[in-house]
Design a protein that fits this description.
251 residues; alpha/beta; Rossmann fold; 8 helices; 7 strands
C-alpha cells in the first residue's frame, strides 16, 4: 500500500529514541523527510546518523515557548515544506497522584500538557490543507495506570484538548488525533521494570496481562503512527487510536 509519504516533511518531538524514533524510521523508510527533536543533543545526533540524509535534528525542549517555532523554521529552511507532526514528550515522574508535590505537578503540566498544546498550535498554523498532527498519549486516557498519577491526571485532559483542536482546525483541512500506546519495550519501560528490582519478572507479569501475551516492539507503533500521519488516513481525525495489544478493556 502506497501511503503517499514520498517527499513529505514531518516534525517529530521527543524522537531521539523510543516510539518517536520508531515513527521517524517508518516515515523515512517510506520516502518522507523528518525533523526530529529532543532535549539531549548527543542522542539527537545519534538518531540523525541512524536515519540518514532525509533527517535533521534539533535540540529542543517543548517547555520552551520558542521550541515549536524553531522546529517549523528548521523544516522550512532544510526541506522547504511541512506536512505534519507527531508530538511526543517524555513520561512524567512515577508516583501516585497524591504523592506528587505541587512543583512536580507544575513541571509535568508545563511539559506534558501546555508544551504539547503550544506545539500543536504552532504546527497547525504552518500546515497546508491535508496536514496531520498526532499526539502520543497513553492508555491512561481511558484507564488509570498504577503508580503513574501525573499521567493519569494530564493525559485524559490532553486527549480532550486534541478533540477540541480537531474541531477547530478541521475546516482548514488539518487533522488532529491522539495515539494511545500500551506497553512497548522502550527505554522508558525498561526503566520502570528496573525500578521493581526484578525486571524480568515484572516484564513477564505485564505480558501476561496483555491479550497477545507480549510487550510490543517500537516498530509496531511506528508503522501505525506513520499511517495515521499519511494521506492514506485523510479521514481520520478527532479520535484516539489504541496501539496496545488489546490491553484496554474500554471501547
Amino acid at each position: 500500500m502506497d501511503l503517499g509519504l514520498a517527499d513529505r516533511v514531518f516534525i517529530l518531538t521527543g524522537a531521539s529514541r523510543g516510539l518517536g524514533f520508531a515513527t521517524a524510521q517508518a516515515l523515512v523508510a517510506d520516502g518522507a523527510r523528518v525533523v526530529i527533536s529532543s532535549r539531549d543533543e548527543e542522542k539527537v545526533a545519534d538518531a540523525v546518523d541512524q536515519l540518514g540524509a532525509n533527517a535533521v535534528g534539533v535540540t529542543a525542549d517543548l517547555s520552551d515557548p520558542d521550541a515549536p517555532r524553531e522546529l517549523v523554521d528548521t523544516a522550512a529552511e532544510r526541506f522547504g515544506r511541512l506536512d505534519g507532526a507527531l508530538v511526543s514528550v517524555g513520561g512524567p515522574a512515577p508516583g501516585t497522584a497524591a504523592s506528587m508535590t505541587d512543583d512536580q505537578w507544575r513541571t509535568a503540566f508545563e511539559t506534558v500538557f501546555l508544551g504539547s498544546l503550544r506545539a500543536v498550535r504552532t504546527f497547525a498554523a504552518a500546515l497546508p490543507e491535508g496536514g496531520g498532527i498526532g499526539l502520543v498519549l497513553s492508555t491512561s486516557v481511558k484507564s488509570p495506570l498504577s503508580g503513574l498519577g501525573l499521567s493519569n491526571g494530564l493525559r485524559p485532559g490532553l486527549a480532550m484538548a486534541a478533540k477540541d483542536m480537531a474541531d477547530e482546525y478541521g475546516p482548514r483541512g488539518i487533522r488532529v488525533f491522539g495515539i494511545m500506546p500500551g506497553r512497548f519495550m522502550t527505554d522508558r519501560n525498561r526503566e520502570l521494570f528496573q525500578m521493581t528490582g526484578d525486571p524480568a519478572t515484572a516484564a513477564a507479569e505485564v505480558s501476561e496481562r496483555i491479550p497477545v501475551r507480549r510487550i510490543g516492539e517500537p516498530a509496531e507503533f511506528g508503522s501505525v503512527a506513520a499511517f495515521l500521519l499519511s494521506p492514506a488516513a485523510s479521514y481520520v481525525t478527532g479520535c484516539v487510536v489504541p496501539v496496545d495489544g488489546g490491553v484496554l478493556r474500554a471501547l
